[in-house]
Amino acid sequence: MEELVEWLARFFSPNLLIKIGLALLQLVGILITTKLLLRFGYFFLERLFKGKNKSDKYIRQRNKTLNSILKSALRYILYFIGGTMALEVLGVPTTSIIAGAGVVGVAVGFGAQSLVKDIITGFFILFEKQFVLGDYIKIAGQEGFVEEIGLRVTKIKDFDGIIHNIPNGSIKQVTNLTASARRVVVDVAIDYQQNIQEAITILDELCQEVKEEHTNIIKDGPTVLGVQELAASSVNLRITAMVDPFQIWEMERIIKQQVKEHFDEREIEIPYKHLTIVKKSEELV
Amino acid sequence: MEELVEWLARFFSPNLLIKIGLALLQLVGILITTKLLLRFGYFFLERLFKGKNKSDKYIRQRNKTLNSILKSALRYILYFIGGTMALEVLGVPTTSIIAGAGVVGVAVGFGAQSLVKDIITGFFILFEKQFVLGDYIKIAGQEGFVEEIGLRVTKIKDFDGIIHNIPNGSIKQVTNLTASARRVVVDVAIDYQQNIQEAITILDELCQEVKEEHTNIIKDGPTVLGVQELAASSVNLRITAMVDPFQIWEMERIIKQQVKEHFDEREIEIPYKHLTIVKKSEELV
Amino acid sequence: MEELVEWLARFFSPNLLIKIGLALLQLVGILITTKLLLRFGYFFLERLFKGKNKSDKYIRQRNKTLNSILKSALRYILYFIGGTMALEVLGVPTTSIIAGAGVVGVAVGFGAQSLVKDIITGFFILFEKQFVLGDYIKIAGQEGFVEEIGLRVTKIKDFDGIIHNIPNGSIKQVTNLTASARRVVVDVAIDYQQNIQEAITILDELCQEVKEEHTNIIKDGPTVLGVQELAASSVNLRITAMVDPFQIWEMERIIKQQVKEHFDEREIEIPYKHLTIVKKSEELV
Amino acid sequence: MEELVEWLARFFSPNLLIKIGLALLQLVGILITTKLLLRFGYFFLERLFKGKNKSDKYIRQRNKTLNSILKSALRYILYFIGGTMALEVLGVPTTSIIAGAGVVGVAVGFGAQSLVKDIITGFFILFEKQFVLGDYIKIAGQEGFVEEIGLRVTKIKDFDGIIHNIPNGSIKQVTNLTASARRVVVDVAIDYQQNIQEAITILDELCQEVKEEHTNIIKDGPTVLGVQELAASSVNLRITAMVDPFQIWEMERIIKQQVKEHFDEREIEIPYKHLTIVKKSEELV
Amino acid sequence: MEELVEWLARFFSPNLLIKIGLALLQLVGILITTKLLLRFGYFFLERLFKGKNKSDKYIRQRNKTLNSILKSALRYILYFIGGTMALEVLGVPTTSIIAGAGVVGVAVGFGAQSLVKDIITGFFILFEKQFVLGDYIKIAGQEGFVEEIGLRVTKIKDFDGIIHNIPNGSIKQVTNLTASARRVVVDVAIDYQQNIQEAITILDELCQEVKEEHTNIIKDGPTVLGVQELAASSVNLRITAMVDPFQIWEMERIIKQQVKEHFDEREIEIPYKHLTIVKKSEELV
Amino acid sequence: MEELVEWLARFFSPNLLIKIGLALLQLVGILITTKLLLRFGYFFLERLFKGKNKSDKYIRQRNKTLNSILKSALRYILYFIGGTMALEVLGVPTTSIIAGAGVVGVAVGFGAQSLVKDIITGFFILFEKQFVLGDYIKIAGQEGFVEEIGLRVTKIKDFDGIIHNIPNGSIKQVTNLTASARRVVVDVAIDYQQNIQEAITILDELCQEVKEEHTNIIKDGPTVLGVQELAASSVNLRITAMVDPFQIWEMERIIKQQVKEHFDEREIEIPYKHLTIVKKSEELV
Amino acid sequence: MEELVEWLARFFSPNLLIKIGLALLQLVGILITTKLLLRFGYFFLERLFKGKNKSDKYIRQRNKTLNSILKSALRYILYFIGGTMALEVLGVPTTSIIAGAGVVGVAVGFGAQSLVKDIITGFFILFEKQFVLGDYIKIAGQEGFVEEIGLRVTKIKDFDGIIHNIPNGSIKQVTNLTASARRVVVDVAIDYQQNIQEAITILDELCQEVKEEHTNIIKDGPTVLGVQELAASSVNLRITAMVDPFQIWEMERIIKQQVKEHFDEREIEIPYKHLTIVKKSEELV
């Protein structure tokens, strides 16, 4: 009997008992920590979506869905980590589990990198305020008014009424066309036979008239800069003006119509393409 | 005899027995866990495909095939991980197995990253509802009606009746052309000899007529904006209108025909290209 | 003598004996497992190639070769893993072997990633049935009839009789031109002097005739849509029709010949390019 | 009783006590170090933003936000590392936690690499002073005046009044157009019938006049280089000059107007495109 | 003395002796295995190059060189691995050596990935027989006859007599132009004044003649398809034929010459570009 | 009391004392090594910047700044490594710290790879002397004189006076235009009616004259090569010459002016574009 | 005293002594191995550069520099590895050192991958002899004579006398234009009114003459292939010939001049562009 006791005593040595105790303690600890982290994560997600809770019903619906997806993801990840740790505590080797999860993780990570890039760029767009809702901008080769700035996608609406969804990660250069004033450039072609100085004088008068008539949208000019080009069939004079950003197209139309009407009055013609014809002498005989 | 017992006792020391016991326990645990995970995985897959079970026979067939493929994949992966863990429990070194599987996994992961990207983008397309079935959209340089939105591929059908299968990963910018109203732009060329104001008046009348005749599809306009361009051989006037998205081509045709007919009535000609001919004097002699 | 025994006893302590026994057991286990996996792999490969065994002699030959190559690869890999595990069991450090094999594996994995991509995409092409043998498709910028769909390469044959081998990995967008009906578009140019309504009436009659004559290949139309463009030298009217997918080119030719013949009857001319000539007055003197 | 003591003594062996003591010591150490690093990090961030504190209110606001974001990030990272270390000290296996965090870290790292590239390039732009505020430069295909040089984004404003936000990472080649002097090139076309030497003499005089009139902006020239091209319809002579960088457009306009006026005086014409007409003899009959 | 013995006995304890013995055994094992692997590798390389031993002297020379280079590489790698393992057996820590070699290996692996890709693609080209020596193919944008298919490079010789060396890795799409029959397409332009039906009849006769004269190279046709295009200045009729792949250029020339000669006989002209001239009335006065 | 001593003795067993001693020793060693490496690093940096110390004040200033930045970086890195090693010596687990630093390191490493590439390419440019200061080169699509060759950026100044900063990593192909002699190519167009042999004789004389007049800058030629092209409206003859690299533009101008003047003397005309006009007979009636 | 001895004996137990002895042995071994490897590396580098030692003084100078740089690099790397191993032998944890060095190594490895690629491709260029010094080749879009084939860069010199330095890694397709014979293609345009058969006869005679006159450089032909194209304004006949690779430009010029002269004799004209003019009847009135 005593031998058995001794044998058992050797069996359940203090070392072993401590180990078992510690293992139990650790298991309980893992369980509690997992639960706590899960609760904290839920709380964090709730706050995250509450903070951005807009009155729009559609967005609220979307947030709800996104919230429940993220909670599921969090739950599965925490369960996986907790379970793996428990196995390790029990002395089960988990290298192969972790290696497997690692390979999957890396594959997903690779595929998800454009998603991560979208979100990081989205964050900086929101943070640096390169544009705000309603701005008229040009991103990724597309012009339009900013309709929505999301974490992953920016929506812009062009003049044709079409909405372009542009992933933030494909936004490199941001051109904000909602400046305080934009430049209008009109090139006026006159005939080579035409006296340049006379034409410039007429255009100067025209500029003065336009300036007086549209003071509300003009910031600066219009001014005649001079001979921009000795072109193939015409001398081109350039007029520029700084106007309100959304009036540049209208201002261009006004100046062009004025030029045509002023030139009609003074009987100055805007020249067509010219071609000098040479007839071969031997053929003419 | 006693020596043998003692020798055996030393042989089968408590430590060893515990180790053997633990190993057996772990093996049984691994077996059960693998089975459980397999069953859970099967159940999860069933539910995943049940949830998306459409009445379409073809899709049901496909889901069935996909389901059985995924089950096979899951089974092989779990068997591999379970087997490797069992080997480790038995003290067989498995570093080389895991390293081998890792290299294969990384290679497959690299090759599969566009697949993962397809699925992640597909998920966001479904989730963010950038377009729905039946929308007329432009993705990856291709316009068409959305026929099917899959996890990996989106199918669109263009006006020529052709179906384009576009992997979701190659969808960057999504342009949704199914707006509430789209813009029609018609540029009308008139002769430089023509009085601009007169032409604009005629076009204004025309716009009014079109507006009254097609109130059902027109949202706004048509309006004459003015002199868009002093072109090489003509003065171009611009007309714009906002119409139902799928009526823009019809509306363009209506306005163009009206312009031709109104101009014919008033005997205004739409000018051809002009060329001013200069004859070399010395050659003319 | 007794000391020697004791010394030996200490030498061949139970612990050591167990270790040696275990090592032997593990070596035998590794040997058996390797053999079993090899046999299972062979069996699996046999079944894989048997399942796809087509009656074509050439493919059978190819499968045989591929089979023997894959068996060699499997054999070398299993021998390598088994050998490394045996070394580890014998206590020989194998870190450097595994590291070396890892670097080679990663290098090969990098180089092979386009191969893996080919096969993964090939699998999805086969699985999603985006096209089948005989379809007329457009992939990777090349149009043609599908001749063969392989795991790595898809072969298409164009109208010129040429075969294009396209690696599956370079197939992004799949355009299947074997639709139920495809659209034919013919733009007819008429002179600006020509009465539009008259021309449209003639084309309407023509459409009716074509429709009646070719009911077997026409699904819908042909219809005159109206004034498509007020072009530089002509007014362009558009005719469209939906026809059998492989009759679009024939239908285009029929409509064009009909247009020419109908216009010839009514003496309507298809206009050449127009140019308005202006002579400089001063030069004319 | 004594046995219990002995048993306890064996239980709480010096080894164990030392281990427990050490663990407690380490836990305390980890706690203190984490706190210290947090405080030091805060201090460092404060100084970083203080050092760049500009009087601009908007930037101060942004710095404040950025500061609080970075502090949060730092806090979470330090807490995570500290917590994991504590778990390890307590003997809880943390491989799976670290592996999980590692995968997330690598994914974020991949997505963030363009951000890191922006900042590294930004640092070198600031450090190498390739351009300073107010310079007129060309980067990433965009010309404009430098408005702001940030760590992530450089802002330039073009002549049209539009601001372009260019991520530093997309700046490859930097062309600084704010040179001490820039070259103006004007090509003057004269008729093939025209005597070249005479034309060159006239242009030489013109250059001399321009030089005297605009000494303040001209650094060198203008000079007539000679026959640049025997073009299709004209002999082209080239004039070049070095002027103040922002006067090149004005100088071009001045020279062009002068050329036109000087040629008008001497009745030299700038030729139109020439075409030699050959009439088919058989057709002329 | 006895104490010394005992001390020594404790020193050279069985455990230690076993360890030393094992180490010696392992060292010898490593030495033998390295030697064996080296010999096996040499043998394998010999067989590899013997198997591909062509009678061409130049290739034999090259194989010899390549063989000796590969043997050197193998020798250095095996010596490195063997040496590192020996160090580990001796208890020298080798982590830093392996880490260093790993970094070098990864760098080389990255740089070598295009080499690996070349070889893998080369293997598949040889294996899938997409083309054989003498075929006329188009790869990587280059057409030519296949001169040599190597593991790394494919050589093709174009009609100009130039040899293009194309790395296999840059071969994506393989177009094999050595088809059983290729299509010839000839578009014949006739005047708008010309009767279409008459022209088609003439071309039909011509096709019949060509068919009879060149039966040896023609597989199908030539056939007149009909009105291919109502072009700007001509009605275009299309003739197609299927001929031997290397006769398509000759057949094109034959048909074109025949068309010209047949049209000359019937006095049908192939039209030049047409232009309708309109003279401005006001200018004519 | 004795028991306490014994207990303490067991507590502070030789093993423990040795361990403590060793730890202290190692800590001191780490401290000293860190200090030494820091000093050595400082010394190395000093020498590096001293060796390249140019008399230019601006560069000295920059080196100073760069030096202090690099010293800070070195200090932080060494402190981090030293601190981590100290923690490990104290038995604190540092896996999580190293993992964290590793992720940051990899992210920075990815972002910095273009920087590393710049510097490596820069080193080879300096080392291989592909170009030196003052050379006229073409790199990355930009021509100019080399102003500065830096480790990261090469500065070139073009003829317009503009400085281009080109990161060395974007320099692929280096074209050095500062050759010993460069070729001038002038194509002279003569009329189809012109006798070719006569024109060649005139050009030969011209070449002889130019050669005699500009012996200082001409290395070889100019020579008339013969009929380069039977172009659309002219026969083109080619003249080539080898001249000093920076005289090619001047030589081109000289030859062109000479050609015009020689042709004027002999009354040979340089032809304009030719067009053969055919009048439709039916229209002429 | 005895207790002290015993205590010391327990202190300096055989185990410890063996450990210390082993450590010393290992340290010495590391020292010696490092020295040996360094010497061997030096010797290897010497031989490498001696083997390629050309008589050119410049290259000798470069090799010397490169040699000393590589020796420094080798020395630093070996010292680093040796030092780290020594630390490990002394029981100092080196994980953090190796991790740090690893991150640096990976960053450098990434940046250096294009360098490694250059060298690997360079090796294959040298080894596969795709071109040799003096060949006229086309690589990376640049034609020229091979001046130097280096491990990193290949230098080619074009006809303009300019040297292009092309990194071997950017050499994909190698086109060797130094073939045994290259093809000359001349397209001759004749009038549509011209009798084709007559023109072909004349060209046949011409080919015969050219063949007889230039037998030394002609390998095959020249031959008249027939009607290459029924072009817009002319019938194009094609002549081809195989000539010495560097005579193709000269041969082209000879054939073109001959064509012009033979046609002049027979009064056959090379046609200009043709245009059929139609005059609007209503305008002519």
From TrEMBL, chains A, B, C, D, E, F, G:
Residues 115-178 form the Mechanosensitive ion channel MscS domain. Residues 74-113 form the Mechanosensitive ion channel transmembrane helices 2/3 domain. The keyword Cell membrane applies. It is a multi-pass membrane protein. Keywords: Cell membrane, Membrane, Transmembrane, Transmembrane helix. InterPro entries: LSM_dom_sf, MS_channel_1st, MS_channel_C, MscS_beta-dom_sf, MscS_channel_2nd, MscS_channel_C_sf, MscS_channel_TM-2, YbiO_bact. One of its GO terms (cellular component) is plasma membrane. This is Small-conductance mechanosensitive channel.
